[in-house]
């Protein structure tokens, strides 16, 4: 059987590396392109790693000439909201201009299927929850704006060049590979669950709760956490449907667990998990941060129906347990 070769851009990062392992386990041959600015070479060990940047058009042409790719998966965005406000040029150059280089290489070399790592940040302030695909899209930061621009570009590339794509909009990716091979290695870390667990492991002194007076059951922000392996399964389902031609055009789906967990619930669950190892978590209260909506929860029914996908790891405790096992390996 001829295996499908897939280019995974950003495959040395958190989500990309888990995707590379998933592809390898599903009989695909992943080739990773990553500039290692935020990724880690050892995380890409389940595929062939090419160190390089999407700004290097000659390298892209070489890659596509040397390999017969069935599809491309793109995870190589700059993704820090605060940084995007301070340095918008970086976000438009990397997330938009460099993605155009990638798409143009695909068109030039006749590669027709593309999976795009998008974000719930394209929606901006929620007008209602849970958020479905029809929700108005008014991003409030350059990061979200850059992702929405690519989604719109993909619609035009589908119409003009026959490039088929699925954009998958994440809410809060979390957890780690249940087998312990991979996990979050961000520097700086900005995600709640690993920050809480770093406070438990001793890598930081405490975790801050920003605001306790939101209009939610316990006063803290509510977010939709989805396990990293469930994200990867959705990408795999989308890829298979593009390759077998049961999906075409430029499509976009929201990915979430469908449940909201508050900051307090995350802290309490993490406390229960780490207490089994004799650890505890110090929590400090702080003022609200500007731009934090009270509730962000996905309506993922479209992905469930169109991709034949269901989250497997819906328990917050399991998500935290997997992340904690990974955190313990980092000490």
Mean pLDDT: 95
Number of distinct helices: 10
- If classified by CATH, what would the architecture of the largest domain be? 3-Layer(aba) Sandwich
Could you state the CATH homologous superfamily of the largest domain? NAD(P)-binding Rossmann-like Domain
Q: In this structure, how is the largest beta sheet organized?
A: 7 strands, parallel
SS-derived structural category: alpha/beta
Q: Percentage of helical residues? A: 25-40%
Number of domains: 2
The fraction of residues assigned to DSSP E strands is 15-25%
Sheet with most strands: strand arrangement: 3-2-1-4-5-6-11
Low-confidence sequence ranges: none
CATH top level class name of the largest domain: Alpha Beta
For the secondary structure, the number of strands is 14
As for the CATH topology of the largest domain, it is Rossmann fold
Order of helices and strands: EHEEHEHHEHEEHEEEHEEHEEHH
Task: Describe the model.
- The protein is an alpha/beta fold and 331 residues long.
- The chain folds into 2 domains: 5-173 and 225-255, NAD(P)-binding Rossmann-like Domain (Rossmann fold); 192-223 and 258-329, UDP-galactose 4-epimerase, domain 1.
- It is built from 10 helices and 14 strands.
- It has helices at residues 14-25, 57-66, 81-86, 88-109, 142-161, 192-201, 228-243, 263-275, 301-306, 316-329; strands spanning 5-9, 29-34, 48-51, 71-74, 113-119, 164-170, 172-174, 207-210, 222-223, 225-227, 250-255, 261-262, 283-286, 295-296.
- The strands form 4 sheets. The chain has a 7-stranded parallel sheet with strand order 3-2-1-4-5-6-11, sandwiched between helices. A 3-stranded mixed sheet has the order 12-9-14. It has a two-stranded parallel sheet with strand order 7-10.
- Strand 1 (5-9), helix 1 and strand 2 (29-34) form a beta-alpha-beta unit.
- The longest helix is centred in the first third of the chain and has 22 residues, at 88-109.
- It starts with a strand and ends with a helix.
- 47% of the residues are buried.
- The mean pLDDT is 95.
